[in-house]
Amino acid sequence: MEVKDVYEATISIEKSVQDLGGFVTHSNLLSNVISENTYNTSSEEAMLVKKYQTENTMQVRVPTAKLGEFLTLINDKKLFLNSRSINAEDITSSIKYAELEGKRIKKTGENISQLKVNKDKVKMDNDNMSEENLQQLANLDVTDNLKYSTIDIYIREPKLRIAELPVTNTKNIDNKYKFNFIYDVKNAFVEGFYLIQKIVVGLITIWPVLLIAGIIVYLLRKKKHFKKSEQV
Predict the structure, then answer these.
(1) 3-class SS letters over 180-207
(2) Surface-to-core class of residue 10, CB atoms within 10 Å of its CB (0-12 exposed, 13-18 middle, 19+ buried)
(3) Are 16 and 71 in contact (CB under 8 A)?
(4) Is the pLDDT of residue 19 over 90?
(5) Are 17 and 169 in contact (CB under 8 A)?
(6) Pick from 47, 27, 31: which is nearest to 157 by CA?
(7) Is the pTM of this model over 0.85?
(8) For 117, which DSSP code?
(9) Residue 129 near residue 106 (C-beta atoms within 8 A)
(10) Are 28 and 59 in contact (CB under 8 A)?
(11) 51, 33 contact by CB (below 8 A)
(12) Hey, which of 22, 166, 172, 174 would disulfide with 17, CB 3.0 to 4.6 Å?
């Protein structure tokens, strides 16, 4: 359903559940941001404007005897009811089955107790006790399902909300520190000096290549000079 204020409706529903002897098993309140924009209001300040919609998915459990009262209470919080469905399950057969299983386990225990004590009897007795524990747990679930009703609730606000948050003008801060002439010139001079060092080290590293290239150039020039002498 749609409500005027999701947070206030959530608090009211949780209080109603507690007053009726129930409890909340799940509540997930979210503010979904649709858009956000920052507007500079001065050289140092800005305003962050968020458009959002709040919703909450809840699951609560209330005594079955007070289910109608609880549904009436939450109905008063609605602006618009999208849907409501009630599912009632007949668990008569589950109750009967639990009774029969309890009798069977009890009878099995009596039969095991009449056996002679040995390794197999200990294992059978242990397995029967484990099965009895599981059946007791199932009985508790059946009792709990009879005593309490589970209600899943989804609430949201029909319109967008707007939040105005004062923040720092980050663009002006970026411009303030974006360029520093003296520092950048000094840094460029140091980096240029390091570049010259790297070039010199690189040339020294490849001295064999330079030496071979020099010899080749010398030989080519000498050969060229020799050819000119022959032509003369």
Answers:
(1) CHHHHHHHHHHHHHHHHHHHHHHHHHCH
(2) buried
(3) no
(4) yes
(5) no
(6) 31
(7) no
(8) P
(9) no
(10) no
(11) yes
(12) 22
